[in-house]
């Protein structure tokens, strides 16, 4: 199933920051929709091109590869395109809509929003209206993977009802809060990284499994 296909009875799952063959095998066994491959050098989850080339092809297309960049220059994006199998681009920096479209070309792309009291939701959505989905994330040092939730009440319920089918919910999701998150937003998908790690950048197969089970259980209860 595509990460970008909305089904109110089935929440898409993206696990971001995978870096080993075991991570990919676990994701495959769990039947999630997508994996996030990080190309942001300050992140402990950042891949080199050799890793990216191998990991992006391990699953024979049974997972969608979401490539995450932060204000990447042309040299980096061209290198990623040369080495990595890409299904979806994810832009997590200050990229303009034009820059997002330029890099993504014919591929779908996601734009991350860092939500706090100063965030202008309507302005953001208008500016990035060509995005396939919006990632609602917390404001943290660096970009993503900070394990911090944002105040969900900053997003009006009226907006959620109209736009849930375009929301990928991120920001500090974990086993203990993903049920509440899905109940609150009924989003297109949820995006987890640090919430399934035993140390920064190191995924835990058991935590990945428990997270996916929580999502599937709440999906069933909300039908």
Provide a descriptive summary of the structure in words.
This protein is α/β, with parallel strands linked by helices and 223 residues long. It has a single domain (12-218), classed as Aldolase class I (TIM Barrel). Helix content is 34%, strand content 21%. The chain has helices spanning 21-30, 49-55, 74-83, 97-104, 121-127, 157-163, 178-185, 205-222; strands at 12-16, 34-39, 64-69, 88-91, 109-115, 133-138, 167-169, 189-192, 197-199, 202-203. An eight-stranded parallel beta barrel has the order 1-2-3-4-5-6-7-8, surrounded by five helices. Strands 9-10 form a two-stranded antiparallel sheet. Helix 2 links the parallel strand 2 (34-39) and strand 3 (64-69). The relative contact order is 0.17. The mean pLDDT is 94.
Describe, in short, the structure shown.
34% of the residues lie in helices and 21% in strands.
SSE topology sketch:
Layout: E1 12-16, H1 21-30, E2 34-39, H2 49-55, E3 64-69, H3 74-83, E4 88-91, H4 97-104, E5 109-115, H5 121-127, E6 133-138, H6 157-163, E7 167-169, H7 178-185, E8 189-192, E9 197-199, E10 202-203, H8 205-222
Parallel strand pairs: 1-2, 1-8, 2-3, 3-4, 4-5, 5-6, 6-7, 7-8
Antiparallel strand pairs: 9-10
Helix pairs in contact: 1-8, 7-8
Key terms:
8 helices; 223 residues; alpha/beta; 10 strands; TIM Barrel; 8-stranded parallel beta barrel; globular
């Amino acid at each position: 199933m595509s990460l970008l296909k909305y089904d109110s009875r089935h929440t898409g799952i993206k696990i971001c920051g995978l870096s080993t063959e075991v991570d990919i095998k676990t994701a495959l066994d769990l039947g999630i929709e997508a994996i996030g491959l990080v190309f942001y050098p300050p992140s402990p989850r950042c891949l080199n091109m050799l890793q990216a080339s191998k990991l992006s092809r391990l699953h024979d297309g049974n997972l969608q590869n979401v490539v995450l960049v932060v204000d990447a220059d042309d040299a980096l994006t061209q290198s990623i395109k040369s080495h990595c199998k890409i299904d979806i681009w994810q832009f997590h920096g200050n990229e303009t809509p034009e820059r997002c479209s330029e890099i993504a070309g014919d591929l779908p792309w996601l734009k991350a929003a860092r939500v706090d009291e100063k965030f202008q939701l309507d302005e953001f959505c208008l500016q990035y209206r060509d995005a396939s989905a919006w990632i609602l994330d917390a404001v943290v040092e660096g970009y993503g993977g900070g394990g911090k939730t944002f105040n969900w009440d900053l997003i009006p319920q009226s907006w959620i009802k109209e736009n849930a089918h375009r929301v990928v919910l991120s920001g500090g999701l974990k086993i203990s809060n993903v049920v509440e998150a899905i109940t609150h937003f009924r989003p297109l998908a949820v995006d987890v990284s640090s919430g399934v790690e035993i140390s920064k950048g190191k995924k835990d197969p058991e935590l990945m499994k428990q997270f996916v089970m929580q999502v599937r259980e709440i999906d069933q209860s909300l039908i």
